[in-house]
Design brief:
Structural class: mainly beta
Number of strands: 16
Order of helices and strands: EEEEHEEEEEEEEEEEE
CATH topology of the largest domain: Pnp Oxidase, Chain A
Mean pLDDT: 95
Strand content: over 45%
Number of helices: 1
CATH architecture of the largest domain: Roll
Low-confidence stretches: none
Radius of gyration: 27 Å
């Protein structure tokens, strides 16, 4: 039976060096989950030799390149950091912002204040603005707000409003941190040009018992794209280029036929 190829296949990557040039002694393979598709383009410069005739009399291959793309729907912090950022990653906490659909009513007494209680017993980290029921932004001031203004104590997450605005509904945006099992994050620093993590990558397709498999020994990412949509999934796009490792190996390839 002839061999055909079908479906998105499987892509697994394992970082072997971080963005600071440190070798990772025991690489951790991570699968690009819910893969939507992957592609690899092998390209070469072709140099031709001409005489007096219209067509070349000889040709020689020059520089080569291997460029790949993969789109995977499952978002994984370990994968993004090891393949794209390559810097220090911390686990167990997350910093984010809530989305209020009902808003908060400014009390008519008690200092006209609203104390923020972040979800998951989180800690207030910073103000991201306040709007009224018509989505008009209120102006932030340092203290003693008047109509259409507010102030905030970022050490406690306490918002103070004007007496004139008592009883009105406001929508408060803020940043908070919380402890969540499995959460991943980090701060990307401005490292020197040329610094980037490297990784090995396996691309495999299996269909009707037959296999296509590429193993690239050393790769570097040159692009990560993430796009939100109004009514669809955010499916990150990942791009990379493959090159030779320290022993000259570029890739292995295997086909069932």
């Amino acid at each position: 039976m002839a061999q055909y190829l079908f479906s998105a296949g499987t892509v697994v990557a394992a970082a072997d060096m971080d963005a600071y040039g440190n070798t990772i002694a025991t690489p951790t393979p991570v699968e690009m989950g819910v893969l939507q598709g992957a592609s690899v383009d092998f390209g070469f410069d072709l140099k031709t030799l001409h005489g007096r005739g219209q067509f070349a009399v000889d040709a020689a291959r020059g520089k080569g390149s291997i460029k790949g793309k993969a789109s995977a729907a499952r978002v994984n912090g370990a994968l993004l950091n090891s393949l794209v950022f390559g810097q220090t990653m911390t686990g167990g906490s997350i910093t984010t912002m809530p989305q209020s659909v009902s808003g908060n009513v400014i009390p008519s007494s008690g200092g006209y204040t609203i104390l923020i209680a972040p979800p998951s017993s989180g800690t207030f980290k910073g103000d991201l603005g306040v709007t009224d029921a018509k989505a008009v932004p209120l102006k932030r001031v340092s203290n003693a707000p008047t109509a259409g203004q507010y102030s905030v104590d970022e050490s406690t997450g306490t918002y103070t409003f004007a007496v004139a605005d008592a009883g009105k509904t406001v929508f408060i945006n803020y940043r908070y941190s919380a402890t969540i099992a499995g959460a991943q994050g980090g701060t990307v620093m401005n490292v020197d040009m040329g610094s980037a993590p490297t990784f090995a990558l396996d691309l495999m397709q299996a269909y009707k018992g037959k296999i296509l498999h590429f193993k690239f020994y050393r790769c570097m990412s040159n692009k990560l794209g993430m796009a939100t949509k109004q009514d669809d999934y955010n499916i990150p796009d990942f791009e990379f280029e493959a090159f030779a490792d320290d022993t000259g190996r570029v890739f292995d390839w295997y086909l069932s036929e």
